[in-house]
């Protein structure tokens, strides 16, 4: 009906008016004056999904600038020039500064020879020995040409309490919760399935996609030097289910290099092994390695499956013990940083230990179950409470980088971390995703990112301010009305009004950046009070009219 009315109006003007065609166009333009609207909108989960942003956030402001204009055009189809929308959205900004330096660091585990008491087969620092005294020299010896700022996570053990001559655990590989094969080598002889790290341990199965598949796969340790550990014993914790126990075996070689077929392997008969009927962890009886005294050995775990028998085999841990120092040796891990001349204990960072994870709960769905966080076990659900207990005397503004093990179903075990700050009496975490805003404006054709601020002058205060600054003779006859009634009147020229408004903008936003835009709404008394709008932009340090 509106279109019909408009056409009738045009036709009537054509046939009855003496005015030229441009006057008709002016009348039509007046009728079709665009709608000017202002709105604020917060993106929803459905919006992000529609954009293909499955994590519910944008990765950059540039991504927002390219994605949103078509969205606004669809949402506000009839809005035109000078319309504006303040868009609230989630922006991913990444980890706190410096966290990746720790999560991407190398690590070094102290060997027997690194400990001062190695002559006694002490596999840890004694309680009286301060690790910080020894570790910098150890790293200097073990690290070739370190670069300034290089970080290493040092893993070591320290005896707690009394030590005696007895049995020492000189070798331990705990696969559970690591999600990796540690320093073990996986060798596939045949079949498509391979050894992999999992939360439960090093895992191998020939069962895949609902089928049993033939496989032969080996998991082989790095070299283990027994020269300092005569009469050692081997223990291993294993899981085997849905298969015949004959499908797995443990072997030892003294001549393995890189070819399992070229090496000589002894099959060792462990007692107390899984029977293939449950997911129970089974710790083997200690197996004597006295036949290998003085040798360097490799331990192999061999798995065989067929198209009719393909159980699941998991190695939880491997432990070697021998006569030596006996005592409680607690594991520790600390970061060290090379400052250009020496290694120093890193400050402002904390690495979560197994005991720390255990303190947060060891039940199903709790961090201590596998000593890691995951997508279903959020760090912030536990760390804020953990930090409040560990640092009861934290001071306002204290920062701490916390690094921890994290298991992802997509990428396996990894190091992650975050920055935590003590503010207002509580710890808070750095947010990698933040809520922020970006304004868009309509330029007459399209929606564009726009910093325009719309402001309506306050009567009478803002007008009084302009009157106080217009002190030249040119304005002596004008400012009375401005100050008294809070408006301009018909005696003001456009140039004079714009000059006064520019003075006001310097007052309103004295620190405005180059390119900042404003649309000011003000009153002119001209046959009554009428609202007018003028657009300004800061150019060359001055406010100019932005047509």
Report on the architecture of this protein.
This protein is an alpha+beta fold. The chain folds into four domains: 2-95 and 433-442, no CATH class; 168-323, Jelly Rolls (Sandwich), CATH 2.60.120; 362-430, no CATH class; 451-545, no CATH class. It has eleven helices and 31 strands. Strands 3, 4, 6, 7, 12, 15, 16, 18 and 19 form a nine-stranded mixed beta sheet that branches. Strands 5, 10, 11, 13, 14 and 17 form a six-stranded antiparallel beta sheet that branches. A hairpin with a 2-residue loop joins strand 23 and strand 24. Helix 9 runs antiparallel to helix 10.
Could you name the CATH homologous superfamily of the largest domain?
Galactose-binding domain-like
How far do the termini sit from each other? 34 Å
Mean pLDDT, nearest integer?
91
State the name of the first-level CATH class of the largest domain.
Mainly Beta
- Count every beta strand, where a strand is a DSSP E run of 2 or more residues: 31
Q: Tally the helices.
A: 11
Summing up helix and strand content along with how strands pair, one would put the structural category as: alpha+beta
Query: Could you estimate the helical fraction of the residues in percent?
Result: 10-25%
The largest pleated sheet is described as: 9 strands, mixed
Shape: elongated
Task: Report the portion of residues in β strands.
Answer: 35-45%
Q: In angstroms, what is the radius of gyration?
A: 38 Å
């Amino acid at each position: 009906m509106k279109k019909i009315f408009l056409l009738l109006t045009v036709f009537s003007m054509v046939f009855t008016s003496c005015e030229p065609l441009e006057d008709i166009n002016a009348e039509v333009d007046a009728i079709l004056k665009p709608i000017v609207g202002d709105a604020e909108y917060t993106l929803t989960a459905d919006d992000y999904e529609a954009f293909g942003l499955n994590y519910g956030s944008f990765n950059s402001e540039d991504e927002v600038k390219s994605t949103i204009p078509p969205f606004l055009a669809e949402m506000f189809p009839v809005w035109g020039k000078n319309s504006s929308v303040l868009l609230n959205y989630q922006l991913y900004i990444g980890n706190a500064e410096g966290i990746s330096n720790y999560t991407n660091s190398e690590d070094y585990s102290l060997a027997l020879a690194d400990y001062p008491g190695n002559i006694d087969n002490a596999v840890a620092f004694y309680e009286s020995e301060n690790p910080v005294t020894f570790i910098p020299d150890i790293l200097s010896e073990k690290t070739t040409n370190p670069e300034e700022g290089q970080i290493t996570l040092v893993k070591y053990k320290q005896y707690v309490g009394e030590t005696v001559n007895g049995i020492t655990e000189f070798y331990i590989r705990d696969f559970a919760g690591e999600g990796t094969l540690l320093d073990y080598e996986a060798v596939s002889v045949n079949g498509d399935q391979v050894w992999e790290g999992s939360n439960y341990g090093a895992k191998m199965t020939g069962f895949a996609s609902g089928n049993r598949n033939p496989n032969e796969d080996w998991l082989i340790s790095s070299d283990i030097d027994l020269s300092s550990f005569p009469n050692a014993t081997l223990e291993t914790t294993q899981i085997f289910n849905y298969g015949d126990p004959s499908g797995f075996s443990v072997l030892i070689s003294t001549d393995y290099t890189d070819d399992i077929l070229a090496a000589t392997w002894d099959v060792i008969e462990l007692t107390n092994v899984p029977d293939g009927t449950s997911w129970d962890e089974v710790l083997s009886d200690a197996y004597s390695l006295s036949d290998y005294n003085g040798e360097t050995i490799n331990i192999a775990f061999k798995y065989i499956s067929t198209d009719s028998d393909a159980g699941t085999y998991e190695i939880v841990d491997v432990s070697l013990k021998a006569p030596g120092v006996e005592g409680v040796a607690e594991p520790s891990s600390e970061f060290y940083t090379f400052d250009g001349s020496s290694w120093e204990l890193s400050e402002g960072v904390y690495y979560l230990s197994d005991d720390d994870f255990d303190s947060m709960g060891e039940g199903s769905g709790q961090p201590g179950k596998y000593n890691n966080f995951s997508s279903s076990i959020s760090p912030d659900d536990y760390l804020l409470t953990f930090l409040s207990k560990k640092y009861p005397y934290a001071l306002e503004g204290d920062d701490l980088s916390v690094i921890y093990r994290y298991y992802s179903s997509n990428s396996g075990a990894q190091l992650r971390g975050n920055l935590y700050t003590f503010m207002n009496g509580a710890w808070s975490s750095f947010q990698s995703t933040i809520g922020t805003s970006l304004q868009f404006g309509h330029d007459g054709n399209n929606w564009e990112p726009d910093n325009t601020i719309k402001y309506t002058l306050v009567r009478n205060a803002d007008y009084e301010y302009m009157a106080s600054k217009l002190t030249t003779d040119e304005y002596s006859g004008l400012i009375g009305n401005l100050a008294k009634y809070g408006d301009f009147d018909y005696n003001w020229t456009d140039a004079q009004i714009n000059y006064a408004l520019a003075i006001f903008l310097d007052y309103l936003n004295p620190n405005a950046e180059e390119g900042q835009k404003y649309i000011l709404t003000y009153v002119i008394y001209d046959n009554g009070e009428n609202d007018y709008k003028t657009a300004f932009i800061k150019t060359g340090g001055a406010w100019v009219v932005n047509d």
